[in-house]
């Protein structure tokens, strides 16, 4: 699902300002990659981003897309959503949220629930870990896939 043009432009402008603060070069290719990510809630894979950007940057390489996404993730500009041990999917939405994943078509959807913000995680589970954060992933079968089954 695509987002509104004004919302996307605002996010892209914030991204440019954050890049400048972090001291990383703002290139048209980096802006295009970020814009593709922020323009959708579909959590695209590297290949999906590559196919879209290639339509208007025909000389961009898949390696450039991979490296740029890796850089963005390391700098905290995007997050990686790994679903069902498949290829990484990317998310420009850094607001606290969770994911619904269709185990058939691999569609990923965001969902928000404030009651999940304060999960009571057992201390025994964190003995050897420093908790940095968490997300909840709910696996199921989406409406479209259920329709195909019948």
Q: What is the strand content? A: 5-15%
Which blocks of ≥5 consecutive residues have pLDDT under 50? none
CATH architecture of the largest domain: Orthogonal Bundle
Radius of gyration: 17 Å
Number of helices: 5
Spatial ordering of strands, largest sheet: 4-3-5
Helix content: 25-40%
End-to-end separation in angstroms reads 26 Å
CATH domain class name of the largest domain: Mainly Alpha
* Structural domain count: 2
Largest pleated sheet? 3 strands, mixed
CATH third-level topology of the largest domain: Arc Repressor Mutant, subunit A
- SSE order in H/E notation? HHHHEEEEEH
**What is the assigned CATH homologous superfamily of the largest domain?**
Winged helix-like DNA-binding domain superfamily/Winged helix DNA-binding domain
Average the pLDDT over all residues and give the rounded result.
Answer: 89
- List how many beta strands DSSP finds: 5
Shape, please?
Answer: globular
Secondary-structure content class? alpha+beta
């Amino acid at each position: 699902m695509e987002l509104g043009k004004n919302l996307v432009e605002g996010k892209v402008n914030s991204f440019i300002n954050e890049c400048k603060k972090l001291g990383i070069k703002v290139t048209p290719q980096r802006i295009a990659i970020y814009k593709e990510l922020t323009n959708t809630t579909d959590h695209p894979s590297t290949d999906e981003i590559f196919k879209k950007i290639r339509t208007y940057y025909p000389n961009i390489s898949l390696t450039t897309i991979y490296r740029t996404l890796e850089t963005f993730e390391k700098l905290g500009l995007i997050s990686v959503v790994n679903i069902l041990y498949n290829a990484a999917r990317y998310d420009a939405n850094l607001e606290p949220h969770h994911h619904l994943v269709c185990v058939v078509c691999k569609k990923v959807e965001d969902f928000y629930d404030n009651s999940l913000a304060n999960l009571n995680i057992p201390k025994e589970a964190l003995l050897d870990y420093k908790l940095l954060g968490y997300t909840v992933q709910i696996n199921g079968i989406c409406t479209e896939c259920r329709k195909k089954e019948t």
